[in-house]
């Protein structure tokens, strides 16, 4: 399977980003998620190159949610995963890479979640299945693209995810036990983002 290198991925971000500000926000987040994942993959029998590519590409669909004024459509933000999957598929990426976009949101979205929450997504299950997908999903939970961006502690995310149901709490706790907790303080200091 073809796995793109960092330069190819960055060039793709630069091509699709509607503005330098959007590029900086999304690309920096993806790089941070990659650095968090690097802490998690140590000692695991996974394809580290695939994890890296997944981290760097997982949010590329966010660019398709910016309007012509440069504003991000927060109401349809949940669609960024399927939009990214479609973008990468149109670019000829293998399905294993496209899935990092559509299968990282929250702690996974099921057809029942989509129906009960009336989410603007095609009905289906968007749940991480491989260890590589789970690592990208997990690492993504520790950094937010809010303005200003911030790092999110495991305890903070555990409280946040509770509003989506006990099954999501359990899924996050299982990942926490499986992958351990990344050390966010040095990254927060390096990037100048708060740790909450």
From TrEMBL:
Residues 22-154 form the HD/PDEase domain. Gene3D superfamilies: Hypothetical protein af1432. It holds the Pfam family HD. NCBIfam families: HDIG. This is HD domain-containing protein. It comes from Actinomadura decatromicini.
